């Protein structure tokens, strides 16, 4: 069985996001980036299957600038066998990403296409479902557990009402949620070896995908600043203040 | 864990600990001298540059040699030095003093050292240097003959009690015929090795300062790119060494910071608060008003100079840069000497194939010469600000030709006991003002350091005997750790039974090392946390 995993280069979750002064986006220059944490969970899951003998090849794919190669190196250090870098300097909208992933999936013919349920930069949560739709494959999103069989998978999804269990025929697109697993610590020798593994390079042109312009970003603004509070001297004063603001 | 852990072993020709100015310069020079040498650089920060913090105005000599065409593609923060100003601050006024000649910055550039390192790292990698951020050196390793044979990286995935969690990953050993320790000020392995080999047997104790820094974005017209301002005086008293800096960058950014010599005597002093007060001085505050903080942090720096420089070589290893103590205090610069020390080590290894003889080479170099020349200036301030300034004038005029060398003493020994103090508190004596510029307090400041530690890991600030904190320190020194720490790591709290207890908020730590240095009983031992933990400084 072959598993394809997508990874996205995103601003690290520890970074305090700064908005560009002209409101055209967020500051990315010199800012720490890492693999989207949900994608890390997807990579971890694929490697666990490989270690358990459930699949024999794991291929990682990313779309992004040259620097996104770092995230592919991380995926290789987890234990992915190969990596494909679809290079573009432009921002990638979900529909473009889905088009690229469709083309890659058609070339690679995986039984499972694993993705993070969303990327922590745009929080769109669209690429997985769109990819499944373009491929005409079944999809199971927000997976908190996956049991693989030869030609199907039983996926437990975290939904508002509790847990929902689906059986999907393979090939399928499955997107991973937080509780699926806890990614491992990368070992230094594996990171060293990953530096020497080859990365295949491709482009939107080569894959015949036209960049979508389905979305237009109008403005990026920080959330409104919280006004500073007042310190009250007594309970009576607190009650009076709350009444004044019609909160009591 | 009763059974010994099986550890992977990797071998390199040269191992470098620390991807700062000294480490990267050494690694690059080694590759330039002999491209086939396999060089591994470990860096404890999650990314190269994320733990580096400095002013910083830089002399470009070593960089010109290492990357001759660097000006064609300069780092993102790189502003030519324009005017130098030197100010004496009083509580409600200021007076401009002549700029000391060492602080004439004509021809230098203002950079962010973190940004400089993240810019330099790909150039090192292009030469074939392997850099591994997120991996620190927990301890140095020795071979049968007692020589340094490399380092061990920390174990990942231990819980707070030190027991393996799911996903426990043992650290590995990295071996090399020569290891270069370029960990920066008070490096944990360097500290271990200086003790182990008694490298400081013939030198004075190292002395330190704590530097606090913030990067601000300010309204247009409040920033004059290239302007370099240094201050002494308020809010420190005449007996405390230290001062402020304001470096005007481009794009309406200002780097502002404050340094306090850690030989300060009054344990009630709060360096973080002194920095915040400095920002509110009438000469400083108008530059910041209406602006916002982009990032903030703190780091100890070495001040001991020539007489405190330990022996920098030992069998199988050398110590470089601030880990040894190559900062030039009167110049307020250490990046060029750190880089130079790395390049000297690389050239020495290339010529001789061994660490033996490096110490003599370093002392005979321009680094040794400039440290020796200014050796008496910093200790002159041990007699207070005015004697210090007069002595600095004398040493400058005579170019360090005085036949004497003033000695240094350990910073923690300079701390006076509370019952030995009859002066008012620093805030009363100096007339601290009410503050309104951010950050409100140390926790608000740590937010801008973006520091991150997994809470469920062994505490990396080891207090060897916490009973001393309660039984002695509280009444002898008033628990100064709760005040000198810039990140509010140490707190004295009451436990359920109403007893006083030391609480260590290790996750706040910004890896400045001040506690390891200034603790009056020398019972705090700073060890490395899991790799990749710590601050994520942005352009500091």
UniProtKB/TrEMBL annotation, chain A:
Heterodimer of an alpha and a beta subunit. Belongs to the ETF beta-subunit/FixA family. Residues 23-211 form the Electron transfer flavoprotein alpha/beta-subunit N-terminal domain. This is Electron transfer flavoprotein subunit beta. It comes from the Bacteria. One of its GO terms (molecular function) is electron transfer activity. Its cofactor is AMP. The electron transfer flavoprotein serves as a specific electron acceptor for other dehydrogenases. It transfers the electrons to the main respiratory chain via ETF-ubiquinone oxidoreductase (ETF dehydrogenase). GO terms for biological process: carboxylic acid catabolic process. The keyword DNA repair does not apply. The keyword Transport applies. Keywords: Electron transport, Transport. PANTHER family: ELECTRON TRANSFER FLAVOPROTEIN BETA-SUBUNIT (PTHR21294), ELECTRON TRANSFER FLAVOPROTEIN SUBUNIT BETA (PTHR21294:SF8).
UniProtKB/TrEMBL annotation, chain B:
Its main location: membrane. The keyword Iron-sulfur applies. Keywords: Electron transport, FAD, Flavoprotein, Iron, Iron-sulfur, Membrane, Metal-binding, Oxidoreductase, Transit peptide, Transport, Ubiquinone. GO terms for cellular component: membrane. Its EC number is 1.5.5.1. It catalyses: a ubiquinone + reduced [electron-transfer flavoprotein] = a ubiquinol + oxidized [electron-transfer flavoprotein] + H(+). Binds 1 [4Fe-4S] cluster. It is found in: Membrane. InterPro entries: 4Fe4S_Fe-S-bd (IPR017896), ETF-QO (IPR040156), ETF-QO/FixC_UQ-bd (IPR049398), ETF-QO/FixX_C (IPR007859), FAD/NAD-bd_sf (IPR036188). Residues 460-495 form the 4Fe-4S ferredoxin-type domain. It comes from the Bacteria. GO terms for molecular function: 4 iron, 4 sulfur cluster binding; electron-transferring-flavoprotein dehydrogenase activity; metal ion binding. Transmembrane segments: none annotated. Its cofactor is [4Fe-4S] cluster; FAD. Pfam families: ETFQO_UQ-bd (PF21162), Fer4_ETF_QO (PF05187), Thi4 (PF01946). The keyword DNA-binding does not apply. PANTHER family: ELECTRON TRANSFER FLAVOPROTEIN-UBIQUINONE OXIDOREDUCTASE, ELECTRON TRANSFER FLAVOPROTEIN-UBIQUINONE OXIDOREDUCTASE, MITOCHONDRIAL. Accepts electrons from ETF and reduces ubiquinone. This is Electron transfer flavoprotein-ubiquinone oxidoreductase. It comes from Salinisphaera hydrothermalis (strain C41B8).
């Amino acid at each position: 069985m072959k598993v394809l995993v997508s990874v996205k280069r995103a601003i690290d979750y520890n970074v305090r996001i700064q908005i560009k002064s002209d409101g055209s986006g967020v500051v990315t220059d010199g800012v720490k980036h890492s693999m989207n944490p949900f994608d890390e969970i997807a990579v971890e899951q694929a490697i666990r299957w490989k270690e358990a003998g459930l699949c024999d090849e794991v291929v990682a794919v990313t779309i992004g600038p040259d620097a996104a190669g770092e995230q592919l190196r991380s995926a290789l250090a987890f234990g992915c066998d190969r990596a494909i870098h679809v290079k573009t300097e432009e921002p990638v909208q979900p529909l473009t990403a889905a088009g690229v992933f469709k083309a890659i999936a058609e070339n690679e013919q995986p039984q499972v296409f694993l993705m993070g349920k969303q990327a922590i930069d745009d929080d769109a949560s669209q690429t997985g479902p769109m990819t499944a739709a373009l491929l005409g494959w079944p999809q199971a999103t927000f997976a908190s557990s996956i049991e693989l069989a030869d030609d199907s998978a039983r996926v437990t999804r975290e939904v508002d009402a509790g847990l929902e269990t689906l059986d999907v025929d393979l090939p399928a697109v499955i997107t991973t949620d937080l509780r699926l697993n806890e990614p491992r610590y990368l070992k230094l020798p594996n990171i060293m070896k990953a530096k020497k593994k080859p990365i295949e390079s491709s482009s939107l042109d080569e894959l015949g995908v036209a960049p979508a312009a389905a979305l237009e970003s109008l403005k990026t603004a920080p959330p409104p600043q919280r006004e500073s509070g007042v310190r009250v001297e007594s309970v009576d004063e607190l009650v009076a203040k709350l009444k004044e603001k019609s909160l009591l | 864990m009763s059974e010994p852990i099986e550890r992977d072993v990797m071998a390199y020709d040269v191992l470098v600990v620390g991807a700062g100015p000294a480490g990267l310069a050494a690694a690059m020079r080694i590759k330039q001298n002999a491209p086939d040498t396999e060089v591994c650089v470990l860096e404890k920060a999650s990314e190269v540059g994320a733990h580096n913090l400095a002013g910083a105005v830089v002399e470009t000599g070593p960089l010109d040699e290492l990357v001759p065409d660097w000006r064609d593609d300069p780092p993102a923060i790189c502003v030519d030095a324009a005017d130098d100003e030197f100010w004496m601050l009083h509580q409600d006024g200021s007076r401009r003093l002549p700029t000391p000649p060492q602080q004439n910055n004509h021809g230098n550039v203002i950079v962010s050292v973190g940004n400089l390192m993240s810019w330099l790292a790909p150039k090192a990698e292009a030469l074939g240097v392997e850099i591994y951020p997120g991996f620190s050196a927990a301890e140095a390793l020795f071979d049968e003959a007692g020589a340094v044979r490399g380092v061990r990286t920390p174990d990942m995935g231990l819980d707070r009690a030190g027991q393996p969690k799911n996903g426990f990953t043992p650290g590995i050993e990295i071996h090399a015929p020569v290891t270069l320790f370029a960990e920066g000020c008070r490096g944990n392995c360097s500290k271990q090795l200086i003790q182990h080999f008694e490298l400081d047997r013939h030198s004075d104790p190292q002395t330190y300062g704590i530097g606090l820094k913030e990067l601000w974005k300010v309204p247009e017209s409040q920033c004059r790119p290239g302007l370099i301002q240094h201050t002494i005086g308020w809010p420190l008293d005449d007996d405390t060494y230290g001062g402020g800096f304001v470096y005007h960058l481009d794009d309406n950014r200002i780097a502002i910071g404050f340094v306090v010599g850690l030989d300060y005597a009054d344990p009630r002093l709060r360096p973080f608060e002194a920095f915040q007060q400095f920002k509110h001085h009438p000469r400083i505050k108008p530059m910041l008003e209406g602006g916002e903080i982009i990032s903030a942090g703190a780091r100890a720096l070495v001040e001991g100079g020539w007489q405190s420089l330990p022996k920098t070589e030992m069998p199988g290893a050398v110590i470089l840069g601030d880990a040894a103590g190559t900062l030039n205090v009167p110049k307020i610069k250490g990046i060029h000497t750190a880089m130079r020390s790395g390049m000297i080590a690389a050239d020495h290894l290339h010529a001789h194939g061994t660490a033996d003889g490096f110490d003599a080479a370093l002392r005979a170099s321009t680094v040794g010469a400039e440290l020796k020349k200014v050796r008496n200036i910093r200790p002159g301030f041990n007699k207070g600000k005015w004697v210090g300034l007069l002595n600095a004038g004398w040493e400058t005029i005579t170019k360090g030709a005085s036949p004497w060398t003033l000695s240094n003493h350990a910073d923690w020994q300079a701390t006076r006991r509370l019952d030995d103090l009859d002066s008012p508190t620093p805030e009363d004596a100096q007339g601290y003002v009410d503050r309104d510029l951010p950050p409100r307090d140390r926790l608000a400041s740590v937010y801008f350091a973006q520091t991150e530690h997994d809470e469920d890991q062994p505490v990396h600030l080891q207090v060897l005997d916490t009973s001393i904190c309660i039984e002695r320190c509280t009444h002898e020194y008033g628990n100064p750790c709760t005040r000198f720490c810039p990140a509010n790591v140490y707190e004295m709290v009451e436990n359920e039974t109403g007893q006083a207890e030391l609480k260590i908020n290790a996750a706040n730590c910004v890896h400045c090392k001040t506690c390891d240095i200034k603790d009056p009983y020398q019972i705090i031992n700073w060890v490395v946390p899991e790799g990749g933990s710590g601050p994520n400084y942005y352009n500091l």
